Amino acid sequence: MKTCNKSLIGLLEAGRRYGNIDDPNFPAFAVCRIRGSILDELRRLDWRSRKTRQQAHELNDVTRDLTKSLKRTPTEQEIIRALVPISRIITPDSTRPWRRKCRASTN
């Protein structure tokens, strides 16, 4: 029911903004406004942030691409390696110089 309401609100908003609803280009404009109104409502109802949604899409894309290229389900480690650039991976060894600097400054 809410989607129907948002469609109607989008159509009314499109007519108000466009002005001349008899113009042959109005239907294309109205479709964009209605679709936008529905998407705005769906985003409002979604508990996830835009960044979280984008990350979920990226995870799905990477998993699908790996499955296709490997011809099997990728492991978690393979997915992580594909998602995270090597320069951003923090290992115990990569933090050691930082630890040394902190110890040296406290002595």
Please give the number of β-strands.
Answer: 0
Distance between the termini: 67 Å
| Helix-strand string | HHHHH
Large-scale geometry: elongated
Arithmetic mean of pLDDT = 79
**Uncertain residue segments:** none
Strand content: under 5%
Rg estimate, integer Å: 25 Å
Structural class: mainly alpha
Q: Quick one: biggest sheet?
A: none
Count of separate DSSP helical elements: 5
- How much helix, percentage-wise, in residues? over 70%
InterPro entries: RNA_pol_sigma_r2
Keywords: Cell projection, Cilium, Flagellum
Organism: Vibrio variabilis
Protein name: RNA polymerase sigma factor for flagellar operon
Would you write up a description of this structure?
- With 107 residues, the protein is mainly α.
- It has helices at residues 2-18, 26-45, 50-70, 76-83, 92-106.
- Helix 1 crosses helix 2 (26-45) and helix 3 crosses helix 4 (76-83).
- The model has no long low-confidence stretch (mean pLDDT 79).
Descriptors for this entry?
107 residues, mainly alpha, 76% helix, elongated
